[in-house]
């Protein structure tokens, strides 16, 4: 996509199965984004370069998913003042608890807004990014309001099925 304002980053292409949930939401809302595979451990220089240049390139929010010893979101956050939203990926035998702690437990001064483990987290990361962007974008804000209304309707409809 040209002129992306959200970056979706992940530590491995194997994370895409989860992180595509963020991409789907951003696409539905018409928010331009880019997807990048970069690792804090395997490609540290590429990761730092991305973080350092993100703001200059016009990115406004970064969504970062990683599993196992998930340092990616923290390393990215260390090198940019753009808000970083972390998504712990359940790619290990610890089912993502390792990634949750690694992503969430940032030392003071360098925040990473951490979502739930896995697909729900990836979806919510995109919605959270949209909420931030909507603060200065009236159209996007309206789309968000409509999304919430539709969402409420779907929940009520589903409840009817429970009683059938
Ligand atoms: C992390 O290690 C990645 O974010 C991924 O969740 C996990 C496993 O990566 P692969 O071995 O599948 O490439 O860096």
Automatic annotation (TrEMBL):
Belongs to the AIR carboxylase family. Class I subfamily. It catalyses: 5-carboxyamino-1-(5-phospho-D-ribosyl)imidazole + H(+) = 5-amino-1-(5-phospho-D-ribosyl)imidazole-4-carboxylate. Pathway: Purine metabolism; IMP biosynthesis via de novo pathway; 5-amino-1-(5-phospho-D-ribosyl)imidazole-4-carboxylate from 5-amino-1-(5-phospho-D-ribosyl)imidazole (N5-CAIR route): step 2/2. This is N5-carboxyaminoimidazole ribonucleotide mutase. The gene is purE. The keyword Membrane does not apply. It holds the Pfam family AIRC. It comes from Thermotomaculum hydrothermale. Catalyzes the conversion of N5-carboxyaminoimidazole ribonucleotide (N5-CAIR) to 4-carboxy-5-aminoimidazole ribonucleotide (CAIR). Signal peptide: none annotated. Residues 4-155 form the PurE domain. It is an enzyme of class 5 (isomerase). GO terms for biological process: 'de novo' IMP biosynthetic process. Substrate binds at residues 12, 15, 42. Keywords: Isomerase, Purine biosynthesis.
